[in-house]
Amino acid sequence: MRKAAGWFGLALVVIVLDQLTKLYFNGSYQYGEVRPVIDGLFNFVLVYNPGAAFNFLADAGGWQRHFFTVLALAVAGWLGWQICRARQSTLMNLAAALIIGGALGNLVDRVIHSHVIDFIQVYWRTFYWPAFNIADSAICVGAVLMVIDGFRKERNG
Predict the structure, then answer these.
(1) Is 0.70 surpassed by the pTM of this model?
(2) Pairing between strand 34-38 and 42-49?
């Protein structure tokens, strides 16, 4: 259980970092305000996302908030159970902790604000990637690590 506590501690760090950054941007920016960081590549912007990744289901009428709440709890619970079972690789536990932290970080927003606060905007010329946040980044990195772990198992086993 001591190892599991470390992974849950990492998930908590992700949640706290995510919420602190969202608190800063929500309090320091006006909705829609854009501040360039690296001209031609990267801005900070305050936007709200009532949907999921890349505004998926953002205009669905409100039911999606409850759906994504249940989904976040289910995913975090299942991944937490996998960590507690202690049958995964270190890489998979790292991936699970990042995904748990990201899912719960965005869940906090949905419960408190009814939307997720996003503030990182990456773009190239006229192509703008949808804005995202620390929780989204943790989920994406965790997903990539899970894929890498899967390929490692396939190759080794």
Answers:
(1) yes
(2) antiparallel
Catalytic residue among 39, 59, 109, 118: 118
* Secondary-structure breakdown of the chain: helix, strand, coil percentages, each rounded to the nearest 5: 65, 15, 20
Residue-wise pLDDT tens digits, 92-120: 999 999 999 999 999 999 899 988 999 99
Place of tokens 């703008």: 128
DSSP 64-124: HHHHHHHHHHHHHHHHHHHHHHT-S-HHHHHHHHHHHHHHHHHHHHHHHHSSEEEEEEEEE
One-letter identity of residue 40: G
39 is catalytic: no
Ramachandran assignment for 57, one of left (phi > 0), alpha (psi -120 to 50 degrees), beta (any other): left
Give the C-alpha separation, 104 to 13, whole Å: 11
Side-chain half-sphere CA neighbours of 11 within 13 A:
26
**Which of 18, 59, 109, 136 does the annotation list as catalytic?**
136
